[in-house]
Amino acid sequence: MLLVTSCSQNPKPVFNEYRTVFRIGDQPEWAATDLNDQHWKKRIALVPDGQVFWSRTKIDILKAPEALKPYGFRLEVYGEYEVFWDGVLIGKNGNPGQEADLPPEGKLWTTFIIPTDLTNTGEHVMAIRLSNYYYPDHIGNYGLKIDDYDDLLTDRLIQNSYMHVFAGAFLIAAIYFLFLFLGNKKEYPALIFSISCFLFFGLTMTHFVRTTVPIHYSLHVVRLEVITGLMFGISFSIPLYFSMQFPYPKWKLFLGIYTAILLFIFSIEHHLFDYTILNMAFSLLVFSLGIAVFGVYKKAKGAFLVFFTLLLCIFMRYSVSFNLSLFTGFSLILLNMLYLLSLRIKEQRLAYENSLVQSTRLRLELLKKNIQPHFLMNTLTSLIDWIEETPKKGVLFIEALAKEFDLLNQIENQTLISITQEIALCRTHLEIMEYRKEVNYSWEEEGIDPGQKVPPGILHTLLENGITHSLPLDDNSIKFKLVYESNSDYKRYTFLTFAAAVRQEANTKKEGTGLKYIKARLTESYHEQWELTSEPVNHGWKNTIKIYS
Amino acid sequence: MNILIVEDESRIANRIQRMTRAILGDALQSLTHINKLQEALGFIENNSLDLVLLDLNLNGDSGFDLLTKAVSESFHTIIISAYKNQAITAFEYGVLDFVPKPFNRNRLEQAFNRIVTKEKMVTNTTKFLAIKKRQKLQLIPIQDVLYIKGAGTYTELFLTDGRKELHDKSLEKLEQLLSHAFERVHKSYLVKIAEIKKISVASGSKYIAELKNGARIPIGRTKYKDLKAKWL
C-alpha cells in the first residue's frame, strides 16, 4: 500500500527550480518577470514584527501542459502571502503584512492553479509577497512542486485514503488488544502491543492530517511536537515489548539506560524534529536488534523472525525515503509483535489445556487411591478373614472402611481441603491399616491450625508411604506425628514417622508415584511457591512441606 | 513339605498359614513367614524348600526380582497377589499357580493340589526358564529349548544354539510347567514335540526320536504309544 502510494506520483518532474532569493521591503514591481534580482539575498535569518518581504524563484518549465489540463503548484511556506506568477497575482494565502492585526488565516500547504498561457516551456518567475509574524526566524520556501493541477490535488487524497485504512487497521488492533488486556489484567504484552498500535495509529494520522485539516503555519510546531512525542512513545514501547517477550538478564537496568538515552536524544536539538525522530528510530532499531540477537541466542520462539525484520528495517532506512522506511518499518515490526503475541496466546492455550488434563488426572489419582488393587484386594482379603474369624471386629473394620470412602467422596473434586478433613482421612486410614497389618499405629499432631487448607490427599499419601516403607518398632508400634509451624514467610508441615525403617534402596532409586502426586498437587495450588523434602532420620522418616506466602 | 510364605500384610499372612496348616495337615514339615524382600532372598538361599507362596508387592517393592530368583530354584512357586493383571507375566516366568486376592480356602487348596497330585498345567504358558549363571539370574526363552535331560535333582537344558545350561528344578517339576509344549519321552528326557523330525526303531526294538538338529533321544517303552499319538 505504501509502495503504491509513493510510486503513484509523476516520476519525471516537469520543472526545474532555481535558488530562491529574498528581499525585505514591499514594492509591487518586484513581481515582474524581468526584474534584476541579482542583489537580493540568498538567505535572511530574521524578519521581525511581521514586516512584509518578497521572495523570487526562477523556474524552468520543461514541458508545457496538455490542452485544458492546467498546471498547478503546491507550496509549503511559513507565513501569509500572495503569489505572483510571471508578474500576475494568481493566489492569496492569508493577509501578508496584517498578521498582527488580523486573526491567523490560510494554511501551511496550499495548491494554486497556474493560468495555461503562463506555462509555456521556458523560464518563469514565481514571486511571493509575504510576512512571517509567528516564526520570524523561519524564512524560506520549504517545498515547491509543479505538476498537473488535478493530480496535485488528488494524489495526496488518494495517499491519504490508503493511509487512513492503514491507520484504521492499527486502531482496531489497539482496541482489540486493549479489551484482551482488560479481560486478563496480567497480560502486559497485550497492553503494550495495544499501546504501540495506538501510538502508531496516532503517528500515521498526525503525519497525514495536513491534507484533510488545514493547519495555519503558526500551529505547525504543535503537529511536529505531537509527532515527536508519539515517536518517543513508540521508541520506548517497542523495545519494552521485546524485552518482555525475550527476557534477558537485568532487562530493567538496560531498559532504564535505553530510556535515558532516548530522553537525551529527545531533549537535545529538540527543534530539529526530523533529526530527533531519525535518531530515536535508529536507537529503537539498534536496541531491539540487540534484544532479538539475545533471543536468537537463547533460541526463543519467533526471535529469528524479529531479528530478520529489524535487519530489513535498517536496510530500508538507508535505501528508501525516510517516511517510507518509517511507516513500512513500523508496520513490519508491529506485525512481528502481533505474531509473537499469537505464539504466546497459543502457548497459553496449550498450557491451559494441559492444566485441565492435569487436574483431571490428579482427581482420578486421588479417587484411585482406594480402588487400586493393592489397597482394595488386600483390604478385602483381611476383611474376609476378620469376618470369618471375629465377625464383630469385622463389622468395625467395615465401618472404618466406609468412613474412609465417605471422606474421599467429600474431597474428591476439590483442589484444597481443610486440614481437619485431611487429618480425619489419615486417622481412618490408620484404623483400616491396623486391621490389615495388626500393628499398633498411633497419630499425634502439634500446632495444627484448623483454618488452614491443603491439597487433598497429600498427607494421606505421606502416611501411605510411611506405612508401606516402615516396619514396626520392637513393641509392634509405629507412630506418625504432624507438626505445623508458620511465620510471615512460610507455613510448614512436618510429617514424622517413628518406626524401624525398611531398607530404602528402591525408594532412592526413583521417585515413587506418591511423591509425584504430592508435587503435582502442590504445583497445582501454589505454583512454584513450595518445597518438599523427604529424608530418613534416626527415628524413621521425615517429610516437610513448606508453602511460601 | 517345607513352605515359605512371603507376605507383608500380617493378617493375610496369618490367614495363609492357618489355611496351609489345615489343608496339608501332617504333610507339612515347616512353615515360615517372612515380610521383607531381602530376608526372603537370604532364606531361600540357605534353606531347602518345597514351595514358596509369594506376594508380588512387598513394602512398595516389586516382587519380580524375588520371583525371578524363586523360579530359578528347585522348588515350585505360587503367587498370591492383589494384581490379577500380573498373572500372565507370572505364568510366563514359570510359576505353578497364581492365586488372586481375595482368596478362600478352596482356591488355596486347589493350588496345593497341583503340587500334591503333580497335576500337569495344560493351560499355562511358561515362556522363560530362569537359570543361575555366574551368580546372576538369566531368563532362557522356552522357544530356545530343544529338550531337557534329567541329571539327578538338576536338569540340563539343551538349547537351539548348541549350548547346554543347568536348571535347579527336577525333570518332574519342569514337566509340570512345560507340559503344553514338551513331552516326557523317557524317564530322563523331556522333548519339545515340535522339534521331533522322526521316530525310528533301532536294534533291540529300542525307539529313538530324532530331532531336527540331528540329536537322538531314547524313547521309553511305555511312552512310545502316547508320544506317537501326540506327535502324529
UniProtKB/TrEMBL annotation, chain B:
Superkingdom per UniProt: Bacteria
GO MF annotations in UniProt: DNA binding; phosphorelay response regulator activity
Pfam families reported in the protein's UniProt record: LytTR, Response_reg
Protein name, entry field: DNA-binding response regulator
InterPro entries: CheY-like_superfamily (IPR011006), LytR-like (IPR046947), LytTR_DNA-bd_dom (IPR007492), Sig_transdc_resp-reg_receiver (IPR001789)
Positions carrying 4-aspartylphosphate: D55
Stretches assigned to the HTH LytTR-type domain: 129-232
